[in-house]
Amino acid sequence: MLGALYVATLKIDYKWRWNRIPQFIIYSAEETVKAPFDGRAVVEKGRISIVPHDGGEPFVVEKPQESKLGDGATVLKGNTVAVNKSWKAGPLLIGLATTLQISFFSIIFAIIIGVFAGLARISRNPLFKKLSILYVELIRGTPLLVQIFIFYFFIGTVLSLDRFTAGVAALAVFTGAYVAEIVRAGIQSIHKGQMEAARSLGMSYTKAMIHVVLPQAVKRTLPPMAGQFISLIKDSSLVSVISITDLTKAGREISATTFSPFETWFTVALLYLVLTSGLSVLVQKLEKRMASSD
């Protein structure tokens, strides 16, 4: 793959500029401190004080990283007193944090929606069962991009939802439909004798489901759940169409600014890979822990 990429860049005469990318991940920012009034500078160890000519309260700068004034210097309003440098997150890191935040809340709500819809799918109540089937088929039969537009432009307008909430809601409802089917399949994979044995011990249907059936079903549904949540992280890139500055939108803006599409999108892909790989490792550890508890 690396060889094919190298040959391809030679054919299109592409000039790599990887040196442009780090500043969009993290960069050193300078913050200048200005004098709020005319006065005289008093420079002490670890402190700069601007004493006003009329004898009022001095303006104090504690522990400046770089001083621009000498002791006793005359200072005019607006003059630079000191410069402080600090590391700040670039657009890609901010976009990564936004993607992580959207994915986290979407996963939480998708689990809640999916568990209730999955239980409704196997319910004896015909109303709950038909409503859950309608929900699952409707959501799985329409594209996620269309659902995001509906949530933002229609439901979001009616309920006054902001972009972030509309994006999370669309992803949660979409993923919840798939989680519902995973939950249904997991519960139905447990032998009926487990429920019958729990009921024979005097447990109610609800208690038997919570304490006997669901714990076993969770172990079986963990791998497909992990795959669905990894897909959710990747699908979260679609919320950029409603102007949420996630990782994908940040990459698009940087690519348009720097004219370095290959470097930008390879970096974006790597950051997505970090998120999905981290989730995979977490689920694998959880699987091993649950397996050891048998």
From TrEMBL:
ABC transmembrane type-1 domain location: 96-283
One Pfam family it belongs to: BPD_transp_1
Keywords, ordered alphabetically: Amino-acid transport, Cell membrane, Membrane, Transmembrane, Transmembrane helix, Transport
Highest taxon listed in the record's lineage: Bacteria
Stored InterPro entries: AA_ABC_transptr_permease_3TM, ArtM/GltK/GlnP/TcyL/YhdX-like, MetI-like, MetI-like_sf
Gene Ontology BP terms: amino acid transport
GO cellular component, one term: ATP-binding cassette (ABC) transporter complex
Family of this protein: Belongs to the binding-protein-dependent transport system permease family. HisMQ subfamily.
Designated name of the protein: Putative glutamine transport system permease protein GlnP
